[in-house]
Design a protein that fits this description.
The chain has about 240 residues and is mainly alpha-helical. The chain has helices at about 1-65, 75-85, 90-110, 115-130, 135-150, 155-160, 165-180, 185-205, 210-225, 235.
Length: about 240
């Protein structure tokens, strides 16, 4: 018995010595880990609340959009988007809302030209502040289209003079071609359409959506008297 008591006393002494030497460090590490976990859980909970509230606002925006008669000048749409931008700017719902509101304003702009400015503002915000590069690229393409319709050619080109994700590069080239063509710059337009044609060929070969739209670019090239299959790599560049 005395032998076991002595062993236990030695182990206890070792534990006390270890704790005296490293106890404060272990406690500090444990506190840091617990604080990090609490912070992570809190951040996830905050994200979930943000997403839930943003979804509720987006659903309200959709209700407004589904009843245009109750919002003839688009003011309620603009306010709903402003609310989302102020409260939940980093959410996917806010980015989707910007695209939807811009599309509705642009459509109404056929009979209410003043609403085109609201459409451009929504797209400009998304192009500059959007968190997702795909949404930003789509916003720039649509904004360039609205500026092209307004014959603001330099401003339209400025929206396209940036790096686009690979899946949007061909569409950006096609839109630049449209702008150059509207300016009467047929050589520049043809070069951009060739870039688009080549890029859409790659997408089509990867089972992407480029195949159908490539036929549209084919028609544009044909109108300029260009046969893309006969174009050299230098012409495409």
């Amino acid at each position: 018995m005395a032998h076991f008591d002595l062993e236990e006393q030695e182990k206890l002494a070792q534990i006390k010595h270890f704790w005296k030497q490293y106890g404060n460090l272990l406690t500090a590490v444990l506190v840091v880990v617990l604080l990090a976990l609490a912070g992570w859980w809190g951040w996830k909970a905050w994200q979930n609340r943000q997403a839930t509230q943003a979804t509720a606002l987006y659903e309200e925006l959709e209700r407004i959009a589904s009843n245009p008669g109750a919002d003839p000048d688009g003011a309620r749409l603009t306010r709903a988007l402003a609310d989302m931008k102020d409260r939940f700017p980093g959410t996917a719902q806010a980015q989707q809302a910007a695209l939807q509101v811009a599309a509705l304003h642009a459509q109404a702009g056929l009979t209410q030209p003043a609403r085109l400015e609201a459409a451009r503002a929504a797209l400009q915000w998304l192009a500059e502040e959007g968190r997702d590069q795909g949404y930003r690229a789509l916003a720039r393409l649509r904004l360039a289209g609205l500026l092209l319709d307004a014959k603001s050619y330099d401003a339209a080109l400025a929206q396209l003079n940036t790096d686009f994700p690979a899946e949007f590069a061909a569409l950006a080239a096609d839109r630049r071609g449209d702008i150059y063509l509207a300016q009467g710059k047929k050589a520049e337009a043809g070069a951009e359409y060739l870039k688009a044609w080549q890029g859409l060929e790659v997408q089509a070969s990867q089972s992407g959506p480029g195949g159908n739209y490539r036929q549209v670019v084919d028609a544009k090239l044909a109108a300029l008297g260009i046969q893309p299959a006969a174009a050299t790599p230098a012409e495409v560049r």
